[in-house]
Design brief:
The protein is an alpha/beta fold and 404 residues long. The protein has two domains: 250 residues, Rossmann fold (3-Layer(aba) Sandwich); 131 residues, 3-Layer(aba) Sandwich (Rossmann fold), CATH 3.40.50. It is 34% helix and 19% strand. The protein has twelve helices and 17 strands. Helix 7 packs across helix 8.
């Protein structure tokens, strides 16, 4: 979307006192009904839009050539939600959708949750970007027995004993377990080098790999570990590589600077044949799209697989281009899929919805394998529900494709 198109859109939001500002139902967010005899389902969507940061009352204060980057993910998620509303409208679905800005400075989440229109909500969909915002919404879902679909990172937010909290975006542990099995299946005979920097999170990621090595029924991977203090020094890394066979270099850090530096260093040295295995956050690393990285094979995990060549994807892309003169981001597809797929499942299964989250009847883009997670096996109550389906994405020679 061009800057003018984006500005016009958020200015229109403020002009009409858009629902994320006033938190009152607007007709634009009502999914039409074929029958008025049945009370409509009520669905609440929460996402970070930051409209308060862009407006002084009704006046846009950042100038006509400036739109803060932090607005874009939530705005595009909202656009995907609204495209799904259009599709549901076309099918005559009987429901109402309420949308809230989680970054509304005048109404924090705890205050929003006191609003009377949230009485009778049947489903909550959330795009989080702050761990601290997860628990109040998850507690509200548990207390009112409302399924809460969490679409984005961060993940569990320390939630436990809450079988109504659903993680579509899998936890880091699940990603690492899937990556370990993927390596066993495809790269076990490679020279495998595990790289990490110092840090508590990095130690935790490494512990997942160590744990998998101990409990795997197959032959454990032979990992050479290279721990780097601050900056990546070529000599420290290259002395662990083998020039006579392919090297699989695992990035054991979520730190973006570390990951980018690792790929840059390996792409510049043509002596070694290298595949780099990254973290799930690499899906959003724009640096990896640099032309100079085309010669190196990069693989990372993702709970999402947006192929963009199917009929639904092409329809969304065409509608988005028509409205906003730009290609839709993954956030648009996430917003669309969450709203359309789970609304349809809710209508089909009603009170049994929470037990049928992996039903593929209304698959849009992704296969979901949503399973109960229990920190202690003897617990009858699930600590949360998690999507265990992980895709693996390969980037090579400017092409991006899934490899499973």
């Amino acid at each position: 979307m061009g800057i003018i198109g984006r500005l016009n859109q958020i200015k229109h939001m403020r002009k009409v006192q858009f629902f994320i500002c006033c938190c009152l139902q607007l007709s634009i967010l009502q999914i039409n009904a074929q029958s008025t005899a049945i009370n409509p389902l009520k669905i609440a969507v929460f996402a970070p839009i930051y409209l308060d940061a862009a407006f002084n009352n009704s006046n846009y204060k950042l100038g006509n050539n400036n739109l803060p980057k932090n607005i874009l993910p939530g705005l595009e998620f909202y656009n995907g939600v609204m495209l799904a509303v259009d599709s549901l409208n076309a099918e005559g679905i009987h429901a109402e959708l309420f949308f809230y800005d989680t970054k509304n400075s005048s109404e924090p989440i705890n205050q929003i949750l006191l609003k009377p229109e949230l009485a009778g909500i049947s489903l909550i969909i959330a795009s989080f970007n702050n761990r601290a915002e997860i628990k109040p919404l998850a507690d509200f879902a548990l207390n009112n027995k409302i399924p809460l679909i969490s679409e984005t990172y961060p993940n569990d937010g320390g939630i436990s004993e809450n079988p109504y909290f659903v993680l579509v975006n899998a936890t880091l542990r699940t990603h690492c377990e899937a990556l370990y099995k993927f390596i066993q299946k495809n790269y076990a005979t490679n020279n495998i080098v595990y790289t990490k920097k110092q840090g508590a999170l990095e130690d935790m990621i490494q512990s997942f790999y160590t744990e998998m090595g101990k409990k795997t029924p197959a032959i454990p991977l032979k990992l050479k570990t290279v721990e780097i203090a601050d900056t990546i020094i070529a000599s420290e890394l290259f002395k662990s590589l083998d020039s006579n066979r392919n090297n699989l270099v695992i990035c054991g850090s979520l730190n973006e600077v570390f990951g980018n530096a690792l790929v840059k260093l390996l792409s510049e040295n043509k002596k070694y044949a290298v595949t780099v295995l990254g973290m799930p956050t690499w899906d959003a690393y724009k640096e990896l799209l640099k032309p100079e990285y085309k010669g190196i094979e990069i693989i990372y995990s993702s709970p999402y697989n947006f192929g963009r060549t199917d009929i639904t994807s092409l329809s969304i892309t065409n509608k988005y281009k028509s409205r906003f003169s730009s290609r839709p981001s993954d956030q648009v597809f996430k917003g669309f899929e969450a709203t359309y797929h789970f609304t349809k499942l809710l209508i089909k299964h009603q009170s049994a919805f929470i037990n049928n989250l992996s039903d593929k009847s209304f698959k849009v883009f992704n296969d979901f394998d949503i399973q109960p997670i229990r920190f202690k096996r003897e617990n009858a109550l699930a600590d949360y529900l998690e999507n265990k389906k992980i895709y693996f994405v390969k980037r090579l020679a400017g092409q991006i494709k899934t490899v499973n």
